[in-house]
């Protein structure tokens, strides 16, 4: 989230993107009498310059009087426009303020919405990473359990082989013991039989 730029609040606002020429054109549309008086003043000055070039002093005086009249008309247009459009300007200022507040609230709502969307995206990403980490840990635990089972099975097979070997050894010693016991028994019988014969011979004598 920190790598991405914050949402801009002035991208679609035309008031902040208005150029100087657009502002002058808007002012001219709002008060057209002022530029008319300015144009008449410039025209009177131009005619006075031409009359001066011709040497027509009466024309020069007439054009200077026309210039003064045009300037007076311009001033009156400014005053009358200010008086006439004063209430409208105040209303317009209030409307501009209300529109500016509305636009600010809309920008704020868009900004908050975009931040919420980014927060949701971050939460989803973190949840996906957490699920991936849990799956990895579960897989490791399963692998560890399998290794433990394999070790236990190996140890059990080794113990079984050792027990079987001991059993075989025990069976062999039992057979040998039985054979030796049998041999001893037969030997004792022979020894016991020989003295009995000797006793018989002594008794006969």
From TrEMBL:
Coiled coil: none annotated. Residues 172-186 have a biased composition (Gly residues). Residues 153-164 have a biased composition (Low complexity). Its main location: mitochondrion. GO terms for cellular component: mitochondrial membrane. The chain crosses the membrane at residues 69-87. InterPro entries: Hypoxia_induced_domain (IPR007667), RCF1 (IPR050355). Residues 5-96 form the HIG1 domain. Residues 130-205 are annotated as: Disordered. It holds the Pfam family HIG_1_N. Residues 134-150, 188-205 have a biased composition (Basic and acidic residues). Belongs to the RCF1 family. Cytochrome c oxidase subunit which plays a role in assembly of respiratory supercomplexes. Associates with the respiratory chain complex III/complex IV supercomplex. This is HIG1 domain-containing protein.
């Amino acid at each position: 989230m920190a790598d991405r730029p914050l949402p801009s609040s002035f991208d679609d606002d035309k008031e902040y993107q208005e150029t100087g020429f657009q502002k002058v054109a808007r002012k001219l549309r709002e008060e057209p009498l002022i530029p008319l008086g300015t144009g008449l003043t410039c025209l009177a000055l131009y005619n006075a310059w031409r009359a001066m070039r011709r040497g027509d002093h009466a024309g020069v005086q007439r054009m200077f009087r026309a210039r003064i009249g045009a300037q007076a008309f311009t001033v009156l247009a400014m005053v009358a426009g200010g008086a006439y459009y004063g209430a409208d300007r105040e209303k317009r200022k209030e409307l501009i303020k209300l529109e500016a507040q509305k636009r600010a609230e809309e920008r704020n709502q868009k900004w908050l919405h975009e931040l919420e969307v980014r927060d949701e995206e971050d939460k989803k990403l973190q949840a996906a990473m957490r699920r991936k980490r849990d799956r990895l840990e579960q897989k490791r635990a399963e692998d560890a359990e399998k290794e433990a089972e394999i070790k236990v099975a190996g140890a059990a097979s080794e113990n079984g082989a050792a027990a079987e070997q001991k059993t075989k050894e025990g069976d062999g010693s039992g057979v040998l013991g039985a054979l030796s016991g049998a041999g001893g028994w037969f030997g004792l019988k022979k020894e016991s039989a020989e003295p009995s014969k000797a006793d018989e011979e002594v008794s006969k004598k």
